[in-house]
Amino acid sequence: MKLALFQIDPVIGDIKGNKEKIINGYRRAVEDKADLAIFPELILLGYPPLDLVEKKEFRDAVNAAANEIAAQTNSVGLLFGSLTEEDDLIGTNLFNSALLCYDGKIQFVQHKTLIPNYDVFDEMRYFESARDVFVHDFKGEKLGISICEDIWNDKDFWKKRLYSNDPVERLLDKKATFLINISASPYSYGKRQARLEMLSTLTKKDKIGLAYVCNVGAQTDLIFDGASMCFDNGGNLIQLGKSFSEDYLLYDTKEQYPPIIQVERSFEEEIHDALIYGLKEYCEKLNFERVLIGLSGGLDSAIVTYLAVQALGKEYVHVVMLPSKYSSKGSVKDSEKLIANLGITSNKISIQSVVNKTLEMLHPIFGNFPEDITEENLQSRTRGLLLMALSNKFKYLLLSTGNKSEMAVGYATLYGDMCGGLAVIADVYKTDLYRIANFINRNEEIIPDEILTKVPSAELRPNQTDQDSLPPYALLDKILQMYLEENKEIDEISRVLGERDDVNKVLHLVDRNEFKRKQAAPALRVSNKAFGYGRRFPIVQGWRK
User: Fold this and answer.
1) Catalytic residue at 148?
2) Catalytic one of 19, 112, 430, 516
3) pLDDT tens digit string along 435-461?
4) Which CATH code is given to the segment(s) 2-263?
5) Is 16 a catalytic residue?
6) Which of these CATH numbers, 3.90.550.10, 3.20.20.450, 3.40.50.620, 3.40.50.880, describes 270-470+513-517?
7) Is 419 part of the annotated catalytic residue set?
């Protein structure tokens, strides 16, 4: 069988646009004499559609489009993901389904069996589970069709499984001769390698070929990397789609292909490309042509500025330097050097007169109270005020520049440096940003060396450094990773790292600042546990007093 795999980038809710992509792709497959064209999970709707599926008018439009697509087919098969409905009085009546069409109509429907409800997934809110799985005879093969999560439960690969049911095993019991999995699997570093190992184990063990078709694109904070995969019945990866790009693969099951070994690059290169792709997609899908960044002279804003230039082009990136009386001459000089290196436009606006006037207005109320974090935050909020004014006036998308380490412990100011429509690096730890900066500078100095070697500082008071308030970033990030991504607690972390007082302080800071993160801009997700929809902790709680 000759398969055409379409790794495409949908827009959530753009049924007309997504439908046209499917039909145009199908026509290409017909021209290339494919037997079956395959598109990803829920591709007609875009993934994840969330509460859009609760609107009857939306569902009706999806179902009408699905039938219009089916009507375009001839003897060449077309498999794509959509939603289907059943009319009874129990449950949601909605299914995440794979639709197999040929000869002008939908011939076979397979619902998704394993409905994930963890991290960024909340499909149980919308979809019911398939009551059974079936194989479908098509052009000499018994196709075993599954959807995304259905293939992530192989008992011979996973030591601990989330589900007792294995729909792929049942398809094999029903004598499937070829497996197809349509997927919308969000990116995180390391997941592509895990996917390779899992699917290779499955196909080698069961001596069966597999086509795994994943979507690509970014939907707000979620990035989908594509990298669709085809395996022969010896467990060898023999076709691999591009990463962070639409792609089209042809796979003839009767042909021999050389095995592909490497599917993932270095951490720095992967995260670099993922963040650029996520930012570019966010701007394109929301029709933002230009972005704005407050450039401080520090590493975080420098990297966000660089990523923006790579995503959009230097002519669409504008930065503003906003020095106060505490800003060092070096910070302004370092910012100007970066601006020259990148060839971007800029302004410089001193915030000190605004800060002074605000303090003057507040003096009758503040009286002789000593200065504290209030005055520090006032500087940051003045910057936020000016940046948002520029964003509104010139239709810029303001990018916030906080990193994951800062967001975790609340080392950021609400309505100040947290202002913005997208948090580009809020899922990247500070120590990892240095690794990415060195990757950026691998061939030439783009981010000035002075920025990389200076001691990190918010520059909100004289001689301030981040380590006045926080443990060294090398220790802080280890604590955060164990707490946020491994769900370890004080005793467990302290046994590994020591520094119990620091561990206790950091965990208190993370918990106490949950309210800030609830109000933050969406953060591009590149780890397996990002702030946002995938991490749901209460603001008001008494676990850690």
Assistant:
1) yes
2) 112
3) 999 999 999 999 999 999 998 887 777
4) 3.60.110.10
5) no
6) 3.40.50.620
7) no
